[in-house]
Amino acid sequence: MLTGDVSTTGGEAFIGGHSILRELLRVQQSIGYCPQFDALFEDLTAREHLELYTRLRGIPWKDEERVVQWALEKLELSKYADKPAGTYSGGNKRKLSTAIALIGYPSLIFLDEPTTGMDPKARRFLWNLILDIIKTGRSVVLTSHSMEECEALCTRLGIMVNGRFKCLGSIQHLKNRFGDGYMITVRTKASGSVKEVVRFFNRNFPEAILKERHHTKVQYQLKSERISLAQVFSKMEQVVEVLGIEDYSVSQTTLDNVFVNFAKKQSDNLEQQESSPSGGGQSPLQRILSMLRPRPANTELNALVSEEPEELESDDDEGLISFEEERVQLSFNTDTLC
Length: 338
Fold this sequence. Notes:
Blueprint: E1 14-15, E2 18-19, H1 24-28, E3 31-34, H2 46-57, H3 61-74, H4 90-102, E4 108-112, H5 120-135, E5 139-144, H6 147-153, E6 157-161, E7 164-169, H7 171-178, E8 182-188, H8 193-204, E9 209-213, E10 217-222, H9 229-239, E11 245-252, H10 255-275, H11 284-292, H12 299-306, H13 323-330, E12 335-337
Parallel strand pairs: 3-4, 4-5
Antiparallel strand pairs: 1-2, 5-12, 6-7, 6-12, 8-10, 8-11, 9-10
Helix pairs in contact: 2-3, 10-13
């Protein structure tokens, strides 16, 4: 909506003092846009793409060659400059889309998942480029499912669930406000000592939640409001030798954990929507008649619904998955805006 790609259904927004409803052309002159899916012509080369967009941007003819060469060098596309875009790898296509967004020195740049399909080296290169852009005083709005990318680039971060903002603030603020306390990771010298460590946590940290349990490693989540770091370290230091602990660490929950918590909400909402019957196939008259029709009370069903679910307790680690696996499973549901 801010770029004019989709018509605005309600509300108002201003970019550089110009309304996106009444002055959209003025707004588009001051923004750069890299879409999620590369809008490239397969038969045009990188140089031809950039020449086309410099003319659309209104760059003076005398400066066109210099601007195109700057973009090719800035995105390290010089060696592919005269090859058709259809032959590029996914990473080079994203680089070219980013270069197009930078043409004309826009004050606001929208990047929709700019590092998709890039290898680690190319991804780090683009991160450094975005940081350089920010240092020049320009603003960058990007969407991403990579929390590592958000921590590397963002000064403020927002998470959307079902198309609505659920949080907005600095990374540390989101960790403090929506995080799950501390993560305690313990590594033992022998696999047999893991059971003793589990018993120790059950006795001394009954509210702790077992998140991972592997050969000689266990990981617990501990709510920060119930215990202080000093108490955690004091109790752990007392049993390091007794329980045969090789090493342990206490850390604040990561941004991944915050993301997973919000992604779960969207997943739950989707399940509810799928399970609830939709009356889209009924005519208005049929819906009115169905509302007027008396419904027999199903006491047996009511009894089942009113029962509280039983809590299952198990000492084994079957079914436990890591936060990273959980994030990957749910990441497609939730968007992160930086």
